[in-house]
Design brief:
The chain has about 100 residues and is of the alpha+beta class. Helices cover about 25% and strands about 30% of the residues. The protein contains two helices and five strands. Strands 1-5-4-3-2 form a five-stranded mixed β-sheet. The radius of gyration is 14 Å and the shape is globular.
Length: about 100
């Protein structure tokens, strides 16, 4: 019998992804990098993630998505909540940032 816990449930990632694409028009290569990372969250929502410092909610995380670098100094970040008790990952938003300005 498989004792592995069920995969995580993702909420709001498709909508947030579409909103980000419509707003920022990232290249297809960057979009592929982000969608690849999203699919990996089903198994590990902590992938490349860290808690958002000083936010006040220990369930709020952000991840720099490595496959999203555009070659011009930008990287995509995603912020989201990880709910261990329900094994749910709820997307807040995606954004593109100058990587050198991030802590």
């Amino acid at each position: 019998m498989d004792k592995r816990p069920p995969d995580w449930e993702l909420e709001g990632f498709n909508e947030a992804f579409r909103w980000w694409v419509d707003l920022e028009s990232p290249s297809k290569a960057v979009q592929r990098g982000v969608t690849h990372w999203i699919t990996r969250l089903y198994e590990d929502p902590y992938l490349f993630a860290r808690r958002v410092p000083n936010f006040g909610d220990p369930n709020f995380w952000e991840a720099r998505i490595p496959g999203s670098r555009d070659g011009q100094g930008h990287i995509v970040l995603c912020s989201y909540w990880i709910r261990e008790t329900t094994r749910t990952v709820q997307c807040s938003l995606f954004g593109t940032f100058w990587e050198e300005t991030l802590e």
